[in-house]
Design goal:
Order of helices and strands of chain C: HHHH
Largest sheet of chain C: none
Largest interface: A-B, 59 and 53 residues
Number of helices of chain C: 4
Largest sheet of chain A: 2 strands, antiparallel
Chains: A mainly alpha (482), B mainly alpha (651), C mainly alpha (109)
Distance between the termini of chain C: 61 Å
Oligomer: heterotrimer
CATH class of chain C: Mainly Alpha
Structural class of chain A: mainly alpha
Structural class of chain C: mainly alpha
Radius of gyration of chain C: 18 Å
Number of domains of chain C: 1
CATH architecture of chain C: Orthogonal Bundle
Strand content of chain C: under 5%
Strand order of the largest sheet of chain A: 1-2
């Protein structure tokens, strides 16, 4: 029941928000997201940390075809649900200083998207998963397409078509798998896990599924929609995309790729790892010379996600757990960084690194938050990024020492591009546009403080989260190694 | 062999161990949150008191250690990361080595904190400075107290961060920021090596906790096992970065951009010795890998020699000291390479005393000269700054290796061990020692003797520093004078205090490779001769410096003056920075632009857009099929039906 | 008087087949080659009727009334179709003063 409530509430709230006139919509939406956060925490409290799937909802959906509307939460889902319910209110709060046109639609779309995202993270039936996968896409299409910056229509269209193109392959694979299930067919997760397919079939099924997830993550070379979309979308849209939506791809691979076609994975893991590691280095090196802060963080995100993907496909416990914790960390860090970029842009009117400088002299609070989030992204110990990077690099290293060493370059390159950005923007002498820069307002602090707290929470006591997902990850590994 | 490290058996120890790093952390939080709000006096008090508190607690641990049966113990704080077989506790290990390092870090740290309260008193970001300094002490304490490699790594990166923040403390100035960034990134190169080393340790021994790793290594691994060599080399890469060894040393001279107390604390006394601490901590592994040790020795010697030659011609008072630090660190690695672990640590200690003293003295000079650091603008300062001069002289004598100052004993012991290992290395070590004495006295003569060469304004301003700055100088001067008696050479006394105290930490290495620890003492005659030679070398260097800079009052050439090619090469630090810039920085930058312009915009994106364009183009040409003429539709339909029937017929 | 099915059976089935195939082909050729909408329409009727004939023939040879029932259906549908179709053609003629299908190519591209 709790799962159903989690899924229904944002959608209902979205309808409610649509009725609100004017800028009051943001407050209603924020309130609704807070209620959802409480629901999420309630779920966490009631969650028994073992490998079972809890809060199950199993209703007939397309009854004739044996397709059930089956959703539930296990440890892996719970972390993603928590990430979503934690970030959405902050993202809504981060838009308080903007006055968007048609606010009711804007905030309704955000809430509607939350339903889609939560659906993806809780679905236990392939078609339910696919359904929510596409549901989540539609709101972000409108958010980016209607409230975005220049060139928004072209960029958003490309993003939309690209991801839909990928998901069609996934749908085809799901339909095929569905018809392979014995008896009156079923598309449930467990039914797919029990399938025994020969390795030739798994080989092509792997690519059908992988391409959908690879585009969403995005893994090199399927990433070209991402920097443009991140740059063009409004700040809230970028945060939704990078903070949560990107995790759909990783989560999808974890839940619907690795255990479903393990033989395919073992055939192609090498290729994927090579692609992922190319992505790590490629994204990082390109980020070094970017002038637009948003684009820089976008490329850094490609680099970070590459590492997560690499860890995922090593199929060892450190890799999967590292991926879980790094998804949380990356969500926190990237949302924080994009928010800070948004603050800087709204105060100075530019995101150009070369045009800024000396901001730190006016803004101790902003500087500290920026530095903490940046250090989290760079993976400094005792911040959240370290835990993930350490586990992921260790898993890649155990898979192949040389791959681990090359992937490790990310800790050097990451420092290079992040510190370059920080130095150019925050340090140095003030100039005309940064002269009157004011420190954070109360709402801005209200967004950044929880994020900073999370940076240290995950960094200092990762076991809070690792222990939640551990049983589920172990169970998944058993399925993969069956 | 599990008897080696057990958890502490009383809660009091746990609390003390926890409080030692926690106090500076609290100081960091108070000063960090209260920057510009707290009055300066209070900020300084908090900053100093927390570190002094840690020092007192460390003393308590140190003196309680014997009562504890001289037995190492660990204190678990909480379970930090646990994933499958990988278990990383957040816990501290107290043994002889960490106790010595604790005293060093908190002791020298306290002195430098007090000094900073005077030195930084005019800075508006006084509180920020103390908070960073406290954070540094916290990280450094984690580094030396951690009970596993990951904890060491935490401190290792933490001190790197503080170094970054403090080098770029005056962040309005772009060159300072660049120096800070350079330090952080170069350290990260080393850190990658360290990290990979940790991974390999885990892969090989299934744990990262010191006790387990060393037990396993001493039992399982053989001498010169390939894996052990790989581990030790990777760890040493980390040490190269942090301890500024060839080829990763160029950040340290640049790091002098930071405030002088920072240079003294971080870039001379404590952080840069982390690499030595790490090697000594991993002595079991290194003892098992003589190949790596030889490599360490060669790198150390090369660095010592190389940096000393650069130091000969530097004109910035802090740069001379920086290169001398690099050179002395090279010495320490040389000692490690010949397995004189304790001698190396002995030199770490004495070096911390006299180099901190020298840096703080230089700070006092810079303070008096209103920020001027160029030796060519100084001269004759001994009258204006008597205390500074006297203490600086002691520091200089100590680093030059003149008895009975601290540097003599540690350097002599170190060189004696090198002599036993290889005469050639010893000869080069002696050459370095000669250069050290020469450039240090060059600095002394240029700064304190002769005529004042600065502006009239600076002359008016000359003054001895306040007591808050001179008292630390005096404390360090005393330590530099008597510090050497911790380890008297065998000819004077059979009781080498430090060596005996540290001896238990090599127990496992001794069991693993007994042959490496077989005592071969030098005869007393040889020992006397070696001592005489090294003192003689230093004295000759001092006399030479006296003739050139004391008597003839030669002043180094002005900027832009014509120099001989060799002189120019050395003066420009062998163009290593330019080399790195050309070989690494520029290509990476070029690659970045190239990848973005040609691969991202030129290949991948066009392919993706190509799909879109293909579909558009396909539609554009296929639409002509829809001619609108009903007749053609009918024809196509009939043909289609015929085709289907035909296919049906065939198949 | 014989029953109608028996009368039909006095002619061999093959003849019906050939005959209705011929009719059908005439219809197709007419549809493809003529440009007047009304003639095309009549050709379509021709094709429908050839099918009707075939259905009737088979129905009587196999003594199965279903075929003939289909014929009635087809005739009813054809009648409706003629009504609608002719109405459209008349409207087209009123608008463009022609029933030539080749000038009705506004729906291209």
């Amino acid at each position: 029941m709790l799962t159903a409530l989690l899924l229904l509430w944002p959608a209902l709230a979205a309808l409610l928000v649509l009725l609100v006139k004017g800028q009051a919509a943001k407050k209603v939406a924020f309130g609704a997201a807070l209620v959802e956060l409480v629901l999420g925490i309630w779920t966490w409290i009631n969650f028994v940390p073992n490998a079972s799937t809890q809060f199950l909802l199993n209703e007939p959906w397309i009854a004739g075809a044996g397709i059930m509307f089956k959703v539930g939460i296990d440890g892996i889902s719970l972390l993603m649900v928590l990430l979503t319910v934690f970030l959405v209110p902050l993202i809504i709060l981060s838009t308080f200083k903007h006055t968007y046109e048609k606010p009711a639609s804007f905030y309704a779309l955000i809430l509607f998207m939350q339903t889609g995202l939560l659906g993806v993270f809780t679905a236990l039936d392939a078609f339910v998963f696919y359904f929510f996968w596409e549901v989540a896409l539609i709101p972000i299409y409108f958010i980016a397409g209607m409230w975005g910056g220049e060139n928004r229509v072209r960029v958003t269209f490309k993003f939309f078509i690209y991801t839909v193109f990928g998901s069609l392959f996934m749908l085809a694979a799901f339909v095929y798998l569905y018809f392979q299930t014995p008896g009156t067919h079923s598309s449930e997760e467990v039914a797919f896990y029990q399938l025994v397919l020969d390795s030739g079939t798994q080989s092509w099924l792997f690519w059908f599924l992988f391409i959908a997830f690879a585009i969403k993550m995005p893994v090199f070379p399927f990433h070209t929609w991402q920097p443009d979309t991140y740059t063009t979308a409004p700040a809230a849209g970028t945060m939704l995309l990078s903070g949560i939506m990107l995790k759909m791809g990783i989560y999808g691979a974890l839940r619907w790729l690795l255990p479903v076609v393990p033989l395919g994975v073992s055939q192609w893991a090498n290729v994927v790892l090579v692609l992922a590691i190319i992505g790590i280095i490629y994204g990082a090196i390109i980020a070094i010379r970017q002038q637009d802060m948003k684009r820089l963080v976008a490329f850094s995100s490609i680099s970070h996600v590459g590492l997560i993907a690499a860890g995922l496909f090593t199929l060892n416990e450190q890799g999967l757990q590292g991926a879980m914790i790094q998804m949380l960390s990356h969500g926190v860090n990237v949302v924080g960084l994009f928010f800070i970029i948004d603050i800087i842009q709204s105060r100075t009117g530019t995101r150009d690194i070369a045009a800024l400088g000396g901001i730190t002299q006016n803004t101790p609070f902003l500087s500290v938050c920026f530095l903490v989030l940046l250090l989290g992204a760079v993976g400094l110990p005792l911040t959240n990024g370290f835990i993930g990077e350490f586990l992921l690099l260790m898993s890649v290293y155990q898979y192949n020492n040389w791959m681990g060493a090359i992937a490790g370059l990310t800790i050097i390159l990451g420092a290079v591009y992040m510190l370059r950005m920080f130095q150019r923007v925050m340090f140095g002498e003030k100039n005309e546009i940064t002269q009157g820069f004011t420190d954070l307002t109360f709402t801005e602090k209200a967004v950044l403080v929880p994020l900073v707290v999370m940076v240290f929470w995950i960094g200092l006591h990762p076991n809070t989260f690792l222990n939640l997902s551990e049983p589920a990850v172990l169970k998944l590994l058993d399925v993969i190694k069956r | 062999m599990q008897e080696f490290i057990l958890p502490a058996n009383n809660a009091e120890m746990t609390w003390v161990c926890l409080l030692i790093p926690l106090l500076p952390l609290i100081g960091f939080l108070i000063n960090g949150l209260g920057n510009r709000k707290l009055p300066k006096g209070l900020a300084g008090l908090v900053g100093c008191a927390t570190v002094i508190g840690s020092f007192l607690l460390s003393l308590y641990l140190f003196f309680g250690f014997e009562g504890y049966g001289n037995r190492p113990y660990t204190t678990d704080i909480f379970n930090w990361i646990s994933v499958g077989a990988l278990k990383i506790p957040f816990s501290f290990q107290i043994d002889q080595l960490s106790l010595i390092m604790l005293l060093l870090v908190t002791g020298v740290g306290s002195v430098i904190h007090i000094y900073s309260a005077g030195y930084m008193s005019h800075d508006e970001n006084f509180g920020k400075f103390f908070s960073f300094l406290n954070l540094f002490v916290f990280s450094m304490l984690l580094l030396v107290m951690g009970s596993n490699y990951v904890m060491m790594f935490v401190g290792w990166e933490g001190v790197g961060l503080c170094s970054y923040l403090l080098i770029g403390f005056w962040n309005k100035v772009t060159p300072y920021n660049n120096a800070a960034k350079k330090a952080f990134i170069m350290n990260r190169v080393g850190d990658l090596g360290f990290l990979l080393g940790i991974f390999l340790i885990f892969q090989t021994y299934g744990s990262v906790v010191y006790g387990e790793v060393f037990n396993q290594a001493s039992q399982l691994s053989e001498v010169n096992d390939g894996v052990v060599i790989a581990i030790t080399l990777l760890l040493f890469v980390g040490a190269m970065g942090k301890s500024a060894q060839l080829p990763l040393y160029t950040w340290l001279p640049d790091a002098m951009a930071g405030p002088t107390p920072v240079s003294a604390l971080i870039h001379a006394a404590t952080m840069v010795t982390a690499g030595i601490y790490m090697v000594i901590r991993s002595n079991v592994l290194y003892t098992l890998a003589p190949v790596t040790l030889e490599f360490v020795a060669i790198i150390g010697l090369a660095t010592a020699l190389f940096a000393a030659t650069i130091g000969l011609f530097q004109n910035d008072i802090k740069k001379v000291l920086a290169y001398s630090t690099v050179s002395q660190l090279g010495y320490m690695f040389l000692a490690l390479g010949v397995m004189a672990y304790s001698s190396s640590l002995f030199h770490v200690l004495t070096h911390a005393f006299f180099k901190a003293l020298l840096f703080l003295g230089a700070g006092s000079v810079i303070h008096a000269m209103s920020g001027e650091q160029d030796l060519r603008k100084m001269g004759g300062l001994k009258k204006a700054l008597p205390i500074t001069f006297l203490t600086f002289l002691i520091g200089t004598l100590a680093i030059s290796g003149i008895p009975p100052f601290a540097g003599f004993f540690s350097k002599d012991e170190l060189l004696a061990h090198v002599f036993m290992h290889s005469k050639v290395m010893w000869a080069f070590g002696l050459l370095t020692s000669f250069m050290t004495a020469f450039y240090m006295f060059r600095l002394l003569y240029l700064a304190f003797f002769g005529n004042f060469r600065g502006t009239e304004e600076q002359r008016q301003h000359l003054h001895e520093s306040p007591a808050v700055m001179t008292i630390p100088l005096i404390i360090l001067a005393i330590l530099s004078t008597i510090g050497g008696f911790m380890g008297l050479p065998a000819v004077f006394s059979q009781n080498h205090l430090l060596g005996n105290f540290l001896s238990p930490i090599y127990e496992l290495a001794r069991r693993a490779v007994p042959s490496a620890f077989e005592a071969h003492h030098l005869s007393h005659e040889t020992e006397y001769i070696l001592m005489a030679i090294s003192v003689a070398v230093a004295v000759v260097a001092i006399i030479l410096a006296y003739f050139i800079y004391g008597k003839k009052r030669t002043v180094p050439a002005e900027e832009g003056a014509a120099l001989s090619p060799l002189h120019k090469l050395v003066y420009n630090k062998y163009y290593v920075d330019e080399l790195y810039n050309g070989l690494i920085v520029k290509p990476v930058m070029g690659l970045s632009t190239g990848l973005y312009r040609f691969v991202e915009r030129g290949i991948i994106d066009p392919i993706v857009n190509g799909f879109g364009k293909g579909v558009l183009g396909g539609g554009r040409s296929l639409r002509f099929v829809q001619s609108g003429a009903t007749g053609s539709y009918l024809l196509l339909m009939v043909l289609g039906i015929a085709l289907i029937l035909l296919l049906n017929f065939i198949i | 008087m014989n029953e109608i099915p028996e009368v039909i059976r006095t002619i061999p089935l093959n003849h019906y087949l050939f005959f209705s195939t011929a009719l059908f082909c005439i219809g197709i050729i007419g549809v493809l080659t003529r440009r007047n909408a009304i003639i095309i329409f009549m050709c379509i009727e021709l094709m429908l009727n050839s099918v009707n004939l075939l259905l009737t023939a088979f129905s009587s040879y196999r003594s199965d009334p279903n075929g003939q029932i289909f014929v009635f259906f087809i005739m009813a549908v054809a009648a409706a179709e003629v009504a609608v179709g002719l109405a459209i053609i008349v409207m087209i003629y009123r608008n463009v003063r022609s029933t030539d299908i080749n000038i009705l190519n506004k729906l291209k591209w």
